[in-house]
Amino acid sequence: MDYAFYPGQVAVIGASEQPVSFGYHYLRHLIDYGFKGEIYPVNPHKESVLGIKAYPSLADVPGDVDFVICCVSADMIPPLLDDCAAKNVKVMHLFTARLSETGRPQAVEMERQIQEKATRLGISLIGPNCMGVYSPEAGLSFAYGLPSEPGNVGVVFQSGGAATLLIQTAALRGIRFSKAVSYGNGLLIDESDIIDYLADDPKTEIIAAYFEGIKDGKKFINSVRRAAQKKPVIAIKGGRSKAGTRAVSSHTAAIAGSNSVWKTVFNQLGVIQVRDLEEMIDQLVLFKGLPPVRGRRMGIIGGGGGKGVLAADLAEEAGLSVPPLSPEMRVQLKAILPAIWDWLSNPIDFSIWGDDAARAGEVHRLFWESRDFDCLIMQVSDDNPMGEDWWVIVVQMEVDSVIEMSRRQTKPVVAVLSAARPGFDDLENIRWRTIMEQRSRLTASKVPTFCSVTEAVQALAKFIGYWEKNK
Amino acid sequence: MDYAFYPGQVAVIGASEQPVSFGYHYLRHLIDYGFKGEIYPVNPHKESVLGIKAYPSLADVPGDVDFVICCVSADMIPPLLDDCAAKNVKVMHLFTARLSETGRPQAVEMERQIQEKATRLGISLIGPNCMGVYSPEAGLSFAYGLPSEPGNVGVVFQSGGAATLLIQTAALRGIRFSKAVSYGNGLLIDESDIIDYLADDPKTEIIAAYFEGIKDGKKFINSVRRAAQKKPVIAIKGGRSKAGTRAVSSHTAAIAGSNSVWKTVFNQLGVIQVRDLEEMIDQLVLFKGLPPVRGRRMGIIGGGGGKGVLAADLAEEAGLSVPPLSPEMRVQLKAILPAIWDWLSNPIDFSIWGDDAARAGEVHRLFWESRDFDCLIMQVSDDNPMGEDWWVIVVQMEVDSVIEMSRRQTKPVVAVLSAARPGFDDLENIRWRTIMEQRSRLTASKVPTFCSVTEAVQALAKFIGYWEKNK
């Protein structure tokens, strides 16, 4: 599979200059993402495609070809496989779809023929019916808008659309990827092969997986168990419900299993199961941004009374604890805040500070040095009732404070910054503009940041659960 | 209480020009929100405050005063009450805090004295320890950045910070408010009185409530039952957990009850219980944007295969159903899409359309006219793998389509548009800019819009559950 992630030469079968065609897109990606090896567009009707010399067939390409991206229709694949064999092709990605996933007998038979011939010729296949390979280090991509710089998350997704969304959306929160494979119908290279590869890949520190169905359960379980022993594996099972299972069959022709079985299996294998892409990204944000968190005691800072009460409720409901302030901490608080030391609690409610607000920084420091908490949550006080100018200063100060805490690494800390969803028109308002500016700052400073306490505590509970099992 | 929402005259005790003082803020709000009646700043050291003639004491104000906003410290309240009686004051809002919520015996005793004296003099009190009254129609507000135009949601929140966040954040999603009261310690006017008022208020069609604790359970239950029979009541109970209960006592000195008791009570009273502000806003969005939805059968449109599979899973897990396409619908689809009619399912997966993509609008129409679905979910296809130009067109077309569906009112429809959280710096990217522009369009067109399928289906399940009980 190294040949798929780091090929010396790539041929695009069906390369085109028509922007509605994937033969165009894949060639475009090789150029845009800066692929360093040889690029061979294959098109019987063109001298060149996108400024690169084209060849009428794969057989006409000079020398060997490591990796082939196939964007032509299914009936053209069997003869193409002969050309692949002649060119010593190691891996072919079949973007080509409309095979077994259609449920039509003719298409199922064609897929069987392709499988049989590729196996006989010793050519690995990724797909069919999938987006293929993203390998930013090598300059390979299957979509627009993916980061060109690599990171530490390896992706194995049956669905390419979902993989694209994951990578684009997670990138906004500072996550980068080592490589990604969308494997579709998984005809030869299946989920287990890719997991094995990512488990051994030194550039991959976390694995993010989306499965719809599994063809070889035993192989899969062995691969996942081995991978989960080496690094965190975060997985979504798609097709957990009746309607989802039906949708799976028209999507990737996979056989889905019942959710309760999957839950048990994932749990036994040490896999972190999440329900959707949003939860998956939350886990990636925590694994990237925090060291192991070895306990469930949360210190919650910031926000007014109502926010504090709700944060405590939500944290406990998620299975975390929010311990009261210890006598030692009271003594320290008394020295800083003689007027309100006995009235403060965890969560710390900013609305009772009055003239002592200027001492917030000192109290934050007490929290981050205290041994009473395993992790801190900074709820940015976007509920501050002062005028806009002051509000902006409070929000900035708290963001400064959490960035400082995070930089010091005294204790794991996450930020919660505003569940507001401004539209573009709302950015004229200083409030929403500030929120978005501070979100950029937090991301740039690598502070794990959530939009709501509910998200933060549910993600933390799952994350801490992982570290309880992996001491 | 009409005097609190529509006063003829308002006096601000402790009016000030210091922007750190709430005597400044409340006067500022009267000016900024365009209060039409008489405004009387009271300050013994000033001739005028913010350009308005000031009075050394309330007794010096000419004529009667309907409503007083009190921003001075607790020890000044007992003598002030005598002045209030002389001026025929109907309601006084005590922004003043540091009373029973501190847990200190002296403060508890002071609060008791205030209560006794106000009762004797026949003066209603809102608070102490609260933000007071927002009545956009009259030009009263307790915070910056609240909409100045009124709407149909009435708010009764123990916590003013949480009320402020609710109103500001919900406003971004098109929600407007008839009036809001933050009642803090609820010394005289309590949650039940406000609920009674909002239940009878013709301008209030939906009630949003946040309670931390209840002083008179029987009165409360009667008020809430009566209100819930008249209009939807959406409520958060703060202080559901051990830590939350502890936080409640330092916030508003209320006695919190266990969550299981509250759950049962709310359920029996027909109250829609939500866990946090985000869930509350989701319900407000649905109640504002949709007619009653009388069944659980969802038609899901848009998004690629992986998104469709997950949407079906998440919908079923939330208690909704995603029925397969009926034979009648297959016949209609065959006429439109002869190449793929048998392969399509619910959710409709755009990634298998190929050259038929141009016919999407016709298929959408089939869905919105079909009797097989009680509600439609349009997942905007932000996972479309085409180039940026095309991607923008697809997203716009789908937003056009859902706006058109919503306008026609043939069937309830909601949109799901991107869980991405761009920071300000990300808006240079056409993708995130487009998402935010389309969010503005959807809000302007009054289409209930969510950021993720999980949010949408969980909110819909709760909303539909309400209509099942209220036929």
Task: Describe, in short, the structure shown.
Chain A has 471 residues and is an alpha/beta fold. Chain A has 16 helices and 17 strands. Chain A starts with a helix and ends with a helix.
Number of helices of chain A: 16
Strand order of the largest sheet of chain A: 8-10-9-11-12-13
CATH top level class name of the largest domain in chain A: Alpha Beta
Please estimate the helix content of chain A.
Answer: 40-55%
N- and C-termini, Cα separation of chain A: 32 Å
Query: Mind telling me the CATH superfamily name of the largest domain in chain A?
Result: Succinyl-CoA synthetase domains
Q: Secondary structure elements and their pairing?
A:
Two copies of one chain form a homodimer.
Chain A: H1 2-5, E1 9-13, H2 22-32, E2 38-42, E3 48-49, E4 52-53, E5 67-70, H3 77-86, E6 91-94, H4 105-121, E7 124-126, E8 132-134, E9 153-157, H5 160-171, E10 177-182, H6 191-200, E11 206-211, H7 217-230, E12 233-237, H8 242-252, H9 259-269, E13 272-273, H10 277-289, E14 298-301, H11 305-317, H12 327-336, H13 360-369, E15 375-379, H14 388-408, E16 413-416, H15 430-444, E17 449-450, H16 453-469
Parallel strand pairs in A: 1-2, 1-5, 5-6, 6-7, 9-10, 9-11, 11-12, 12-13, 14-15, 15-16, 16-17
Antiparallel strand pairs in A: 3-4, 8-10
